[in-house]
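Dear U.,

For the methods section draft, I wanted the exact inputs and outputs in one place so we can describe them consistently. I've listed the two proteins in the order they'll appear in the manuscript figures. Please don't edit the token lines directly; just add comments below if something needs changing.

First protein:
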Amino acid sequence: MSDIENADLEWLANGTPRSRQFDDIYFSSEGGPEESEHVYIRGNDLETRWRKTTAGDRPFVIAELGFGTGLNFLLCHRLLDNIANANLYLHYVAFEKHPLTIADIGRAHSLWPQLKKYSTLLRQQIIDHTCGLHRFHFDSKVTLDLYFGEALTGMSDLFSERTEGVDCWFMDGFSPAKNPALWNADMMNTMWQYSKTNATASTYSVAGQTRRSLQNAGFTIDRLPGFGNKREMLVAHKKNIGLKREASQFTNPTSRPAWFKTKSARYSHRRAIIIGAGLAGCSTAYALTQKGWHVTLIESAPKIAAGASGNPQAILQPRLSAEISSQSMYYLHALLYASRQFDQIQKQTDIGWHPDGIIRTPERETRSGLWQRTALPYASQILTRLTAEQASELAGISLASDAIFLPHGGWLRPALLCQAYLDGIANDQLHLISGQSADSINHDKGYWQIINNSGVIASAPVVILCNSYRLNTFPQTSYIPLTPVRGQMTITMGNSRSSALKRPLVAGKYLCPADFAHHSIGATYQSGNTDTSVKAEDDDENIEGIGNAFPATTQLGLSAVGARASIRCNAIDYFPVVGAVPDYEDFISVFGALGRNADAQIKQHARYQPGLYLNTGHGSYGLTSCPLASEYLASLITCESIPVTHAIADSLSPARFIIRELKRQRVPVNAQKSIRNLD
């Protein structure tokens, strides 16, 4: 997770940064913004194209090879504001192998005071580096996907499926002679493959290799006057819609199996029903409506956030791992995404967000094995080790052991967050139905019907099930192996010692800083239990569990004054279940050969339930996991580029359970019963 190296810079006398790795400068000494305006903004005729944008053109996708200082993005953001076309939505995708540090970005941006507004917005969200894909939102009109890593690998993850294609390419890497990987035939073929018809690309380079690679890929080339002392520049166009090109071997990985590939659907009516109004349901409603959809949100309780999402305090923390995997990468990016989102929401409405980081003791890391690792698999911006003295200073209270610190963690009031999600939706985009159960779902003539004893209470082409383990009551999703988990959190009155706690502490249990003079301590974990009555012995367990974090001489003397028990939901593999719902019987039929040979190569695709999706199984990490899961799901439904890599998307997929059971020879070819009953 820490394998990305920041750019190694030297600063020239005129203030221009130069890369030591590639022996090249980042922008022209004759004027960085002026050169970028000439080559990329005017070269691609963006102002004219954006002024003509209509409602059906959403979004406009720009892809940049080489993010560098972010100058081109700042200029695009400013141009979008100046044009003020209500129909224009910008999705900006950039690939960078060696990102600049925040300090270096700030130093470069100080040269352009005219872009200060947009520079500030960018630097408030970005971090130095963490490999993989990061999604940033700048209000509802601008989305930035920033991929740290090899460009070809990133293009596969972002563009190979479910995307509407790229409208415009900024070829802004270092010169072909210094950085040939960004200018070779594989790159140009890949660009052509993922471009819309009439897409354009521009570059300051007129090198013969660049021209030939673009032309051989299928682009037509125009030479235009260059900027400053550069006589020419290139603009490429994709016009020949009949020409087919093979993408690079890196962008069509054969390792991605057929069962994880879903067919993109276009919905003429952008309406969806979401069942369940906890964190998963409310964050999904928010993500989908930000992309222009209308949502009906159905909650069986009288009000939203009635379950675990109604606890008085919740901690933003990731599930840590000693090894790099798609699961650990998901939780890392989910942590960063949620932290950025909460920062933005807190500016608009008070959700009690305290982004002060969290402290975790070795007792918490026993299961992950992280503490035993000499070298941590996380960048220092994400996680640092602390001595007991350092941890005590950060905590504000004396602690008994060394610890680790996660600066992007924090705590908030989850019920306020759920309400803020809904308040952030335009009135005409949301219809909330509370106090109504969804007893069954039925698909008829392209629409899903939600049915209870009152009859059909809602219908739409898309349904998203966010109702925890209760989705097992529907035949279409009965095979998903979900388990209810009872958890009781304890409320204690703060005192002079406990009120000194500055940040959440996670040990055997978690302890939140005082909020309205009360602490939250939690939580017990009882798998398979759905009893929500409060138990005194659970309060004792919580208080004792956090007490081990303090020296015997500085116990806090906390006692229970209240408690709340609620039910979370875990999948059998303790990982969220997010994505399209497979047609169980068709999957068994198409992929049944895996039951005889787990390595069978099957290229045929099976059916997914039309317009049916899940967002569940977040367990104890729902505050961290739900925001990114919901953005992923909304992108999947709207056929936009997804905000996670394919490896992460596949690990989230509900299809994983069917395939695992087939490979273990536990599902007969003609199975009619659910996987969860096979044990």
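Second protein (the one for the lower panel):
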Amino acid sequence: MKKGKCGEKSFPSSGVGEILAQSLTMDQIAHLLDVVFAAEDTGRYSDGFKKADPDMAETVEKVLAMNSDEIPGPKSGRLASNQRILEHWNSLWEQWDTIVLDVGEKEGEYAVQDAHWEPPYFDGYALAADLDEIAADMVGIIDGVYNLVKNPDLFQTAMEEIDSNISSYPEWMGEEEGCTLGKNATRCVLRWLWLASHKDLHPGRTFLAKVYELEDEFDMVDLDDDESIAFFAELPDAVCQEIYECFGNEERREKRDDVYSKWHKINHLYQKRFDSTRYLETCRKHLAKNWQYGKPLIDDAIAQGDYQKADSLLEQTFSSCLNRDEKNAWRPETSLLLTQRSYYRGDDEEKIAELLESWAIVAENLGNTRRGAALRLQSVIYRAPEDWDTVICEYKKLRLTEVKDVVGTLFSEWQTTMARRSIHDRMDNNVSSDTWIHWLIEARLDMTGKKEWFLKKLDAWLDHLKEDEKLFEQEWSLLARLTKDLPGSGSLQKSYPSFFKVVLPLDSEPSPLGKARCKGLKQMDTDIFLSRAMGIWKSHLRHLVPDPASSHTSNYQEHVKWIKALHELSRDEYNALLARWNETHKRRRNLWREMKKHQLPI
């Protein structure tokens, strides 16, 4: 900067705009422009704006039009010049490049070591997540920036760098698993390839070839299958038709025959849109491997009035769903689908419930009342198994028919399932078919006539638990569940905090099943049973406190948690157990150290 007379500083030979940009904050510049554009006839600046920077001129014109009082409609939205968009895009790529440069470094962010004695490994999931966070910002501006960047191979080069850097890890780091890009990054890659292809004479063929090229070129980086399928589905119909025609050749036929391949799913999606005959042929061919191929075949058979065929297809569909062969086909009259598929529940449960409803209609049209009734109950249970009111209502209607034996068997299985789910964190599946949860559900069938019956059953069971130490040890989990569900049990958390936390079930949040149990117990007027249950705990909890001798390490935290719960309930029982520990475990210093830590008398 030049100096004037007496050492005073003078302005550099820059434009006023640059000087203002250096001298004011962004907020001040914004206020300055508000004043200028409010006071002046901005039209006279138009030619100067265009001469200085056409991109700037166009953006200013759009902003002014958007905020003009003469133009109706909402005054919302955000505009940016091409240069501003490109500036943001470049900043995103700087972040992307920084991440990718770290890949391949043995001491880098993606070389993870769980414990100091374990070897590090490449964490492809973390890499994909970090890149996807950046790509989420790229997705919204990718169309506007493509022509500004003028690099059709941009994302192919980016994938090449990721692939190369992952490959530079030593083999023992498990780099062979590679990295599957997230949904946003996958969409960016595919959108860029599409923008590079859509003006070609055969855009579908060109785009498909580019995607094939990516798949063939890289071993360590791949695109997300679900997002790829969604992208191909959203392409214009004419382009989809062109790609479908390309699928007719032998190239990659093996992958298109693999029901788990994205190419099979894309091809099948196009078959449904353009070739219904082949679509159904594919469904028939692969039904045994993918149960979801059953519904189109079933719908087609029902539309033709062929209920016998539909019944057979439904049986095949559910056999596929449960991974069974024809000899071991599932019969809806014999067992609950809920228990057969309990470990496979996912995002398609509503589709399963709808298939059960369709099968009920088919069975009824065939005159098979037993199967129809079983399927009516099955569909209600499967859709909302923990909604006791709905399940009981449906069962009460069906048990009045001549097939009450069929629905009765299924209802009993559902009762046991509810008992198992109620104590799943404490016991295995070997739950008795005669628990207080069974009795409660049974009483809900006849609130007036069976209320007294339920109370007597519960009273007798609690008496047996009090008298029989072995029975208590076998069924204490059921007592814990009852204690937590009884009216007024919330007060236990304040009175006996350790007992409440350690012994009673940990319910992370209210569930429909928990609400159903609590509602039923409240309707049965079971308030008096909470003190009865606590009396049993005070008498027998000592039998559940783990013996320190069973510990294979010097960690006694669990043992002390339980004896602390006992200390809260009964000082006499605590002192008796403590006396035995003092005699048999006096040399276990870590045990007594842990006791002192919890301020327990020793």
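Candidate sentences for the figure legend, describing the second protein: The first helix runs from residue 16 to 23. Residues 86-274 form one domain.

Thanks,
Y.
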